């Protein structure tokens, strides 16, 4: 069975209550990303040696094989690259939310990022639509990054 990230808060429910599926924001691999999200910012790891973005973070830079990294805040807008619609919950805590869409968003810096797509009817989703990050606080430590149509229209 695949490993499921432990919820960042609370204890698993014993009866009808199921702890939400939240990321481990203390994991050092992604901690700066989640810390930035609590401030409403989108942070991506970069290689200072060749300036290549590293997303998702990897063991070393795929472009120059360097091992040094730094985190930079980037524009939190992008375009819908592709998406899928979950009609069966991937985790019991999501059962009341199906059907929902998960987007692969391509950022202006070229990396693709997965996240919940909201604020648009499922039948109105269009490849290439401009999106903007929406920061959803789930606890003092955990802020999730969802994506929604960019109504400013200048993504
Ligand atoms: Zn590099």
Explain what the structure shows.
- The protein has 155 residues and is mainly beta.
- The protein has one domain.
- Helix content is 5%, strand content 32%.
- It contains one helix and eight strands.
- The chain has one helix at residues 31-38, and strands at 42-46, 53-54, 70-74, 77-86, 100-106, 112-117, 130-137, 143-149.
- The strands form two sheets. It has a five-stranded antiparallel sheet with strand order 6-5-4-7-8. The chain has a three-stranded antiparallel sheet with strand order 2-1-3, with helices on one face.
- The longest helix has 8 residues, at 31-38.
- The protein is globular and about 45 Å long.
- The structure holds zinc ion (ZN).
- Zinc ion (ZN) binds at residues 47, 49-50, 52, 61, 63-64, 66.
Features:
binds zinc ion, mainly beta, five-stranded antiparallel β-sheet, 1 helix, globular, three-stranded antiparallel β-sheet, 155 residues, 32% strand
Q: Helices, strands, pairings?
A:
Elements: H1 31-38, E1 42-46, E2 53-54, E3 70-74, E4 77-86, E5 100-106, E6 112-117, E7 130-137, E8 143-149
Antiparallel strand pairs: 1-2, 1-3, 4-5, 4-7, 5-6, 7-8
Zinc ion is lined by residues 47, 49-50, 52, 61, 63-64, 66.
Can you describe this structure in just a few lines?
The chain is 5% helix and 32% strand.
The small-molecule ligands in this entry are:
zinc ion
SSE arrangement, N to C: HEEEEEEEE
What are the low-pLDDT stretches, counting only 5+ consecutive residues below 50?
Answer: 1-15
Give the domain tally: 1
* Major beta sheet, strand line-up: 6-5-4-7-8
The outline comes out as globular
Determine the strand fraction and express it as a percent band: 25-35%
Largest sheet geometry: 5 strands, antiparallel
Distance between the termini: 40 Å
Radius of gyration: 16 Å
- Class per helix and strand makeup: mainly beta
| Number of helical segments with 4 or more residues | 1
Q: Return the average pLDDT rounded to an integer.
A: 89
Q: What fraction, in percent, of the residue positions are helical?
A: under 10%
DSSP strand count: 8
């Amino acid at each position: 069975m695949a490993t499921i990230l432990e919820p960042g808060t609370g204890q698993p429910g014993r009866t009808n209550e199921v702890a939400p599926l939240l990321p481990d924001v203390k994991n050092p691999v992604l901690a700066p990303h989640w810390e930035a999200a609590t401030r409403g910012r989108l942070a991506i790891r970069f290689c200072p040696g060749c300036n290549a973005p590293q997303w998702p973070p990897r063991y070393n830079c795929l472009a120059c094989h360097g091992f040094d990294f730094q985190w930079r805040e980037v524009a939190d807008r992008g375009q819908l690259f592709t998406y899928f619609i979950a009609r069966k919950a991937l985790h019991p805590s999501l059962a009341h939310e199906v059907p929902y869409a998960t987007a692969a968003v391509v950022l202006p810096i070229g990396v693709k990022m997965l996240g919940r797509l909201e604020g648009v009817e499922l039948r109105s989703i269009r490849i290439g639509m401009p999106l903007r990050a929406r920061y959803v606080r789930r606890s003092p430590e955990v802020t999730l990054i969802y994506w929604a149509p960019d109504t400013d229209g200048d993504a």
